[in-house]
Write a structure and sequence with these properties.
Structural class: mainly alpha
Order of helices and strands: HHHHHHHHHHH
Shape: elongated
Strand content: under 5%
Largest sheet: none
Number of strands: 0
Radius of gyration: 19 Å
Length: 240
């Protein structure tokens, strides 16, 4: 089922919205019906994932628990656990931005913006810690590497946009690549070693980024920007 779905949607299915056949659900005319159905299945998946992992069997069980038939679940989530993994990541992104809604990034130094954003995203994932453990393991599988890269890039992009970043040159890409590394490292340490170790990792990573930015400012005249932008652009769009 999953291979067939990927062939139908193309190799970069996770970068485009999925279209659904007409008359799939009785309430499809309701505003946001697909989003509501996805949210219902994801809520059940977060209960099942700690024990069953992010699998097709778990996806079908979550759909059934949400009140959908097997056919409806597979139409709603044609790529099964991959679709659910993407939904979960984007839900965590939204929760992080909601937690940051009362923070004025313009009043903060850039270091503090990165720290606040990265920690908000980490805390959003820790809200379902057991499910997140299985989620990180699922995304670590070689077959899921393109999806994992895309999702962490989305998370980094969301945080930088909240922080007020408007760069359109190579800095757009380098900032997101660096923050993606921070997000990944911080979450993994939080899951394996706890909050204190994760905060220490976050601070070290931010200091490394600030040092890199200072280095870039010193060597910017070397003309490497075009190569950097091209390489990071290929990372962003999955053409490695």
């Amino acid at each position: 089922m999953s291979t067939e779905g990927e062939t139908r949607l193309g190799p970069h299915w996770y970068m485009r919205p999925v279209t659904y056949p007409a008359n799939t659900f009785a309430d499809q005319s309701a505003p946001g019906w697909a989003e509501q159905a996805e949210a219902q299945v994801l809520a059940e998946a977060l209960k099942l994932a700690p024990e069953h992992g992010w699998t097709w069997a778990m996806t079908r069980a979550a759909g059934a628990a949400a009140g959908f038939s097997l056919g409806e679940t597979e139409l709603l989530l044609p790529n099964g656990p991959r679709d659910l993994a993407a939904l979960y990541s984007r839900r965590c992104d939204a929760q992080a931005l909601a937690a940051l809604a009362d923070v004025d990034p313009a009043a903060l130094k850039i270091r503090e913006r990165i720290r606040r954003g990265a920690w908000a995203r980490t805390e959003a994932a820790i809200g379902h810690e057991a499910a997140t453990r299985r989620w990180t393991g699922y995304l670590a599988l070689p077959a899921n590497a393109p999806l994992a890269l895309r999702l962490v890039w989305e998370s980094a992009d969301a945080i930088w946009r909240w922080a007020g970043d408007t760069a359109t040159d190579e800095n757009h890409y380098s900032k997101r690549a660096l923050l993606a590394g921070i997000l990944t490292a911080t979450l993994l340490v939080r899951l394996s070693q706890g909050e204190e170790a994760a905060l220490a990792t976050l601070e070290r990573r931010i200091e490394a980024v600030m040092a890199f930015e200072r280095f870039k400012a010193r060597v910017g005249a070397l003309g490497l920007g075009g190569w950097t932008a091209g390489a990071l652009g290929r990372l962003r769009y999955g053409r490695l």
